[in-house]
Prior knowledge:
Helix content is 35%, strand content 23%. The chain is α/β, with parallel strands linked by helices. The longest helix has 24 residues, at 359-382. Iron/sulfur cluster (SF4) binds next to helix 6.
Amino acid sequence: xxxxxxxxxxxxxxxxxxxxxxxxxxxxxxxxxxxxxxxxxxxxxxxxxxxxxxxxxxxxxxxxxxxxxxxxxxxxxxxxxxxxxxxxxxxxxxxxxxxxxxxxxxxxxxxxxxxxxxxxxxxxxxxxxxxxxxxxxxxxxxxxxxxxxxxxxxxxxxxxxxxxxxxxxxxxxxxxxxxxxxxxxxxxxxxxxxxxxxxxxxxxxxxxxxxxxxxxxxxxxxxxxxxxxxxxxxxxxxxxxxxxxxxxxxxxxxxxxxxxxxxxxxxxxxxxxxxxxxxxxxxxxxxxxxxxxxxxxxxxxxxxxxxxxxxxxxxxxxxxxxxxxxxxxxxxxxxxxxxxxxxxxxxxxxxxxxxxxxxxxxxxxxxxxxxxxxxxxxxxxxxxxxxxxxxxxxxxxxxxxxxxxxxxxxxxxxxxxxxxxxxxxxxxxxxxxxxxxxxxxxxxxxx
Length: 447
Ligand code: SF4
């Protein structure tokens, strides 16, 4: 038996990819370990979305170097590998800057991981770089992700992006849009449900651009895929993330109207409320188009709650543009949101823009926006007090007799309950904070 330690950064897609890497490496005798100290293989599955992501990875690698040396002194070997989007973006630069890294592989090549690891193990001193975008779809060569880890699971259905927003590295690191065939997705979902999963979150960098080949010879959109999944007995909840407003089509809106398993919560990034900024971001939609999409979604499902992403201080953003973002937030009302200061991503068009916004202005705008978003989140949560919400119980809480689960709106709910993990129970919400809810089993369920 050999130990593999994987440190995962970033989005759910990377979490899903890491689970698949564990499965891919099992036939080579690797078992996952919780700490890198004694691992035979250490993998950094990296993310390039945050500022200075590459520098953070280099700094983490420095810590691993000491462990690798200590292991060598004990007569052992530690293979150090860097995967994910930083690996894709930096490639040979990592091998150049960090002499003890054995293996660098991009997100599109990790199905070849066993072969790459075997090479690194056998050919002592050989250093391997694989950041090609292969002609073969990697999903055809991958085992399913570990589905039995709990009652919820991620399932990647789409990868890559053709949108080329001017601030984003994804089209360069993950490549062109690719949708997995419908049968592959349904099969993996069926196995997950068979292993006890009750909620599946469909993943994709641009998930609602999904257009998978189906057995009837057509390409199914995300709405059709959701309808297909909803027919699986035992699958009680379906979610998807992350969407682009330009790909919200009639089929997806109709799925929100017709499919009860599809949760009434959508993460729909808007980034800015100013059309001038949206155009500079190459978002391909205006603020009004976003408003109209939200109206249509809410008409289809009146209890639908929204989450979004915002960037403040994008190059050229004026005070007026920023106020337009605040207006949009005020008007729509978000249950949750992620907001960031614009930061340059090397290689993206916006990084070269001359009219960068000063740091102090970005900080001020972010503070104002986050206060508003936080207030909306708290208001949304407080409005749940007194309601009975169905909660999928996922794990034990910190206190005796407490379980933690999720509401349909993805709120974390602390429930005073006897052990009923994996069940969906009605919970009477008695308290709310900005980040979570608390409650107890509603009387009928408690009886
Ligand atoms: S749609 Fe999303 S993933 Fe694609 S380029 Fe824009 S921000 Fe990046």
